[in-house]
Design a protein that fits this description.
With 85 residues, the chain is mainly beta. The chain contains 1 helix and 7 strands, in the order E-H-E-E-E-E-E-E. The strands form 2 sheets. It has a 5-stranded antiparallel β-sheet, with no helix packed on it.
């Protein structure tokens, strides 16, 4: 099933994004620049980094498996939660 990034993230928090394929045999993951028009093939979310309580843009990552069973990492920028109050 294809899921758009807009359906996964809180509206207004995404500033920039990258996706890549993770392999246990690679020391570094190939990261591809994310385009807003892309659909992400997310079958299962494995983990998601916490959004820190700061009032600035910070990087976060989501690790997921696609419909082919390949593990991928989606890295993007969000606004920290420290500005909320």
């Amino acid at each position: 099933m294809l899921i758009s990034i807009a359906g996964l993230l809180v509206a207004g928090q995404v500033a920039a994004a990258e996706i890549g394929v993770w392999s246990p045999h690679q020391s570094r993951m190939l990261v591809v620049e994310y385009q807003a028009s892309q659909d992400l093939d997310i079958a299962r979310v494995i983990s998601h980094s916490k959004i820190p309580v700061v009032c600035k843009v910070v990087p976060v990552e989501m690790v997921y498996e696609d419909s082919k069973g390949e593990r991928r990492v989606h890295r993007y920028q969000v606004m920290g939660t420290g500005c909320l109050g």
